[in-house]
Amino acid sequence: MVGARVEPLVEQSGARPRPADGVLVVNKASGWTSHDVVAKLRGLFRGQKVGHAGTLDPAATGVLPILLGKATRIAEYLMEWDKEYRAVLRLGETTDTQDATGTVLASRSTTGLTEEAIRSTIGRFQGRVTQVPPMYSAVKVGGVPLYKAARAGRTVERESREITVHGIEVQGIAGRDVSLLVRCSKGTYIRTLCADIGAALGVGGHLLALERRRVGPLTIERALTVGEVEARFPFGHLEDEMISLDAALVAVPALIVDEATALRTLHGVPVPWRAAQWADNVGAADGPGGQTVRVKDRAGRLLALGRAPQDAGATIAILKVLAEGNPQPA
């Protein structure tokens, strides 16, 4: 691993504090892979399950959601979050990886480019955009990750994918480098976005630097470095930084059930639709509709994730039980 490291903490006598189930926001340093961060924290949180949602390339920095305990069971739902990036696009150079870590394949002058042309071209990339996944990516074709083929010198045909750029803002232009703020849907490759913008301008381009500022509700302002996590952990000071499973799933509509139904829910028993009521109006407008829902008791405790039926005469299938013990009285 590259970059500064904090020396491992000396093991102290007695029981070590155990972080609660939830999501911890880590500010990943350049040079670390997402797996490096997980491996480091697994060594720190011994006996605790640790995972992550949303991989960052080693050269990128910023928000990496770390999932602890039962939060590892909701990763697939958190992957739906939109994201915000601060990126620097370097015009006039095309690389084989679409970023600054690769080999320069072509160089072109940017002398004739005007600020107006740069801004108007970038503006066309807002909205629904199709992208071809880069060869240096973990996308699998025929069960094999593309990066393995790329390292072997092979190019594999890939299908384009539709992503959404909710907003793209030019924050500054310094010579051939363009600073961008991008808000986008899951599955967006900022490297590819930069390469496509460069191609549209006729000079080529690649991603020079990238910082992820936000993943869903998780922002860079509340992120801790790995060193800060290590420093706070022995003193039990991570609890205030944790995001509960319920808060992490706030975008999923919630249903409330009574105490008797809650007890059955904890055992994975399907919930009759008539025994549940919407916690608010987030999902009520669409009816059951087969959507994923949070199932909560009357005290507001998250019990499980379920799949609502297609019609109101059936039951809610329990997908994942996320609570333990007896439901709390309202």
What are the key terms here?
330 residues, 32% strand, Pseudouridine synthase, Archaeosine Trna-guanine Transglycosylase, Chain: A, domain 4, nine-stranded mixed β-sheet, disordered N terminus, 8 helices, alpha+beta, 3 domains, six-stranded mixed β-sheet, single chain, globular
Walk me through this protein's architecture.
18% of the residues lie in helices and 32% in strands. The protein has 330 residues and is an alpha+beta fold. The chain has three domains: 87 residues, Pseudouridine synthase; 130 residues, Pseudouridine synthase (2-Layer Sandwich), CATH 3.30.2350.10; 70 residues, PUA domain (Archaeosine Trna-guanine Transglycosylase, Chain: A, domain 4, Roll). A hairpin with an 8-residue loop joins β2 and β3.
Give the SSE string: EHEEHEEEHEEEHEEHEEHHEHEEEEE
Q: What's the CATH H-level homologous superfamily of the largest domain?
A: Pseudouridine synthase
Distance between the termini: 50 Å
Poorly predicted regions: 1-14
For the biggest sheet, the summary is:
9 strands, mixed
Q: Which CATH architecture of the largest domain would you pick? A: 2-Layer Sandwich
State mean pLDDT (0 to 100 scale). Answer: 87
Separate helix tally? 8
- Radius of gyration over all CA atoms, rounded: 23 Å
CATH topology heading of the largest domain? Pseudouridine synthase
The count of strands amounts to 19
- Structural category is alpha+beta
Total separate domains = 3
Shape: globular
Strand content: 25-35%
What is the CATH C level class of the largest domain, in words?
Alpha Beta
- Determine the fraction of residues in helical runs and give it as a percent range: 10-25%
